[in-house]
Amino acid sequence: RKEVEQDPGPFNVPEGATVAFNCTYSNSASQSFFWYRQDCRKEPKLLMSVYSSGNEDGRFTAQLNRASQYISLLIRDSKLSDSATYLCVVNWGRQLTFGSGTQLTVLP
Amino acid sequence: GAGVSQSPRYKVAKRGQDVALRCDPISGHVSLFWYQQALGQGPEFLTYFQNEAQLDKSGLPSDRFFAERPEGSVSTLKIQRTQQEDSAVYLCASSSRVGEGGYTFGSGTRLTVV
């Protein structure tokens, strides 16, 4: 079983749609949680950190449920430029552990 | 520098050849990581340096893989006797904070072994 599991998609949604990604992690000692975005043939870039209280950054909302070991990302009013792979990332100790990513394509 | 710089950007190696991949982290960053990303997968941890000390090499897939950071800045990942399964993107990341996330990644080196 992978340490961080995500639905690989692909998710194809029309512009303006709301889309949600889910992720589960296996290590209950995990300390920090993130969503990274990776464009095709580019490096991963930090999208946002995820906190237990939930946090929002513009159209993006992230939630963490430590009891269920579950992380989510909600994108509202999706734009063409949101098309990318979204990586769920968990940190315990020093290293980051990545999920395989969920591919999103926003269609005009 | 302004970001994490990796070279070469692309490398084609014949099976059995040795390769060396370079990472130039953001100046002053203490933590440096190497990751391997296969097509369609997320990055997989290879090794971690804190300054010049290699504190974790548990992710290196075999003894053909070797990494160093002798002066605590530039790092080199060396792969000896490359095999086809070594074909992947090798990503370097650095951070100024020990033990926390939010790392900055370089653009990676795409290695193809033929």
Largest sheet composition of chain B: 7 strands, mixed
Amount of helix of chain B: under 10%
- Classify the oligomer: heterodimer
β-sheet strand percentage of chain B? over 45%
Question: What fraction, in percent, of the residue positions of chain A are helical?
Answer: under 10%
Overall number of strands of chain B = 11
- Helix-strand makeup class of chain A: mainly beta
- Beta-strand proportion of chain A: over 45%
Backbone CA Rg of chain B: 13 Å
Count all strands of chain A and give the number: 11
Number of helices of chain A: 0
- The H/E string of chain A reads EEEEEEEEEEE
- Structural class of the helix and strand makeup of chain B? mainly beta
The largest β sheet of chain A comes out as: 6 strands, mixed
What Rg of chain A is obtained from the alpha carbons, in whole angstroms? 13 Å
> Which whole number gives the mean pLDDT of chain B?
94
* Gross geometry of chain B: globular
Distance between the termini of chain B: 33 Å
Q: Give the integer mean of the pLDDT values of chain A.
A: 93
**H/E series of chain B:** EEEEEEEEEEE
Helical element count of chain B? 0
